[in-house]
Amino acid sequence: MDIVFALKHFFLSGHYNGHRVHSPNIFNFFLGTLFSKESFDYSLAEDCRKKFLNNNSSINVLSIGAKGDGKSTEKKRISDIAKKSSSYGKYGRLLQRISSYLKPQKILELGTSLGIGTLYLYAGEKNAKVITLEASTETAEFAKNNFKSLNLENNIECINKAFDSVFETILQQNPDIELFYVDGNHTFEATIRYYNLICKYALKTSVVIFDDINWSREMSKAWSEIKKTKECIVSIETFRMGIVFFDNNLTQKNYIVRY
Ligand SMILES: C[S@@+](CC[C@H](N)C(=O)[O-])C[C@H]1O[C@@H](n2cnc3c(N)ncnc32)[C@H](O)[C@@H]1O
Questions:
Q1: Each residue of 173-222: pLDDT tens digit?
Q2: Which atom of ligand 1 sits closest to the CA of residue 212?
Q3: Which of 42, 48, 53, 181 has the most CB atoms within 10 Å of its CB?
Q4: How far is the CA of 25 from the centre of ligand 1 (A)?
Q5: Ligand 1 center–CA 57 separation, angstroms
Q6: CA angle, corner 131, sides to 219 and 29, nearest 5?
């Protein structure tokens, strides 16, 4: 995380608590998600994360993504992965509320890890089919076993493949994906490439969530480019997450939110 980005975000952000938001649909989105006062049951994801934080067993994790070579593996404790690489806290909860608000019939997540983000997304809309991609075999196996132990193997499909080998095919085969969560391979080039593919195949009503938009200069640059594309009608950014709406019935705008 870069202090320059943090300060820039702080000074630019102004649309908070919904008061200065104009477009009616987006106003409702703010009230139903970022600033919802409703109480939600987050226990599905949060009980699993709690259990994983106490799990001292280890798995071999493939080094892939922005810092990985895609070949070597490293032994990691489940407790460490749960602590460092899984959704949690207000951002995990936000995923669930976005899913609950949008009620997507199909969700695609890039980057399963242990499946905590997946469970937040699923918990928001239990009628949804969730497809989630993870290249690291033992990580994907761990997540799959957990989905099975929760009897969710028919609701959540975890595909153990590198994004690049399957992403376009999945998009072609699933034109009904309404919510995307991009949470892996945080390089500029890959993020833009995934975004362009989503733009090519997604529905006009689809919504895309990018995690870690200020995690690195590359991610911050990728987010700046994404916001400028003609497909991005509305963008909402917190310091950490960027959300894109393609729907051209909405009033074009970028909202920067203190969350
Ligand atoms: C930050 S973690 C995902 C966390 C999860 N979405 C959550 O919310 O709990 C990113 C995951 O993406 C996977 N990943 C990164 N690059 C990938 C790629 N190119 N193909 C497939 N998986 C990848 C990593 O192995 C890692 O498990």
A1: 999 999 999 999 999 999 999 999 999 999 999 999 999 999 999 999 99
A2: 1
A3: 181
A4: 31
A5: 20
A6: 65
